[in-house]
């Protein structure tokens, strides 16, 4: 997702630094993220939050969990955070990181994050760009470094090639799943779609009749 720069974004982010943590502050926050929330609860992180529809929906649906949306684009993170703030104010269980998802172990310590979400990540289809895919082995190593034993990565995509690549990458890395943990058509599976929170991209692809692939993989 590449968005046109918004002239208000930088000033808004600066004025709401209690909601959006920049990359420098995020690296200094390692091991202390619970202090930014009203309650100490499990922390779930979405890498690549885009305009924030998913992470806001999850935070509203699950007040018993603390959520962090991570996004590298200034415009995207500003839109996501401002939309949330304008709709519901400062939620007690939702914060954002304006930073790069590559190297999340520099932001969180082992087991500080209970679960990760990867939603509609860039598929980087060219072979020479394989290492940029968020399910490439170097990224999986970073995820393992911040999740607890048996920690979970939940992955959704519209891209069949990326889905198949990711399943192989998970397996090669030693991650595991059962037939109950994945679907080739999320919205045609009544059991798995129950409680599903949709992203902007998800709604776009559904409108075109494209299936949504999903897997929950565990270390």
Automatic annotation (TrEMBL):
Substrate binds at residues 126, 158, 199-202. Catalyzes the formation of N(7)-methylguanine at position 46 (m7G46) in tRNA. Keywords: Methyltransferase, S-adenosyl-L-methionine, Transferase, tRNA processing. It is an enzyme of class 2 (transferase). One of its GO terms (molecular function) is tRNA (guanine(46)-N7)-methyltransferase activity. It holds the Pfam family Methyltransf_4. NCBIfam families: PRK00121.2-2, tRNA (guanosine(46)-N7)-methyltransferase TrmB. Its EC number is 2.1.1.33. S-adenosyl-L-methionine binds at residues 46, 71, 100, 122. InterPro entries: SAM-dependent_MTases_sf, tRNA_(Gua-N-7)_MeTrfase_Trmb, tRNA_methyltr_TrmB_bact. This is tRNA (guanine-N(7)-)-methyltransferase. Coiled coil: none annotated. Pathway: tRNA modification; N(7)-methylguanine-tRNA biosynthesis. It catalyses: guanosine(46) in tRNA + S-adenosyl-L-methionine = N(7)-methylguanosine(46) in tRNA + S-adenosyl-L-homocysteine. The keyword Chloroplast does not apply.
């Amino acid at each position: 997702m590449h968005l046109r720069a918004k002239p208000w974004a930088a000033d808004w982010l600066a004025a709401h630094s209690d909601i959006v943590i920049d990359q420098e502050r995020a690296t200094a926050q390692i091991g202390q993220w619970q202090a930014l929330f009203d309650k100490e609860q499990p922390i779930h992180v979405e890498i690549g939050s885009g305009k924030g529809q998913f992470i806001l929906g999850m935070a509203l649906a699950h007040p018993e969990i603390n959520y962090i949306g991570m996004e590298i684009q200034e415009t995207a993170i500003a839109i996501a955070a401002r939309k949330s703030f304008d709709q519901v104010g400062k939620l007690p269980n939702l914060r954002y990181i304006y930073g790069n998802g590559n190297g999340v172990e520099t932001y969180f310590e082992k087991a500080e994050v209970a679960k990760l979400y990867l939603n509609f990540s860039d598929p980087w289809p060219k072979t020479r760009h394989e290492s940029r895919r968020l399910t490439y082995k170097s990224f999986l190593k970073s995820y393992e470094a911040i999740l607890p034993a048996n920690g979970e990565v939940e992955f959704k995509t519209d891209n069949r090639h990326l889905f198949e690549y990711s399943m192989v990458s998970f397996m090669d890395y030693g991650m595991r799943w059962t037939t109950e943990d994945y679907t080739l058509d999320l919205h045609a599976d009544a059991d798995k779609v129950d409680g599903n929170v949709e992203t902007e991209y998800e709604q776009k692809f559904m409108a075109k009749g494209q299936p949504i692939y999903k897997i929950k993989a565990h270390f």
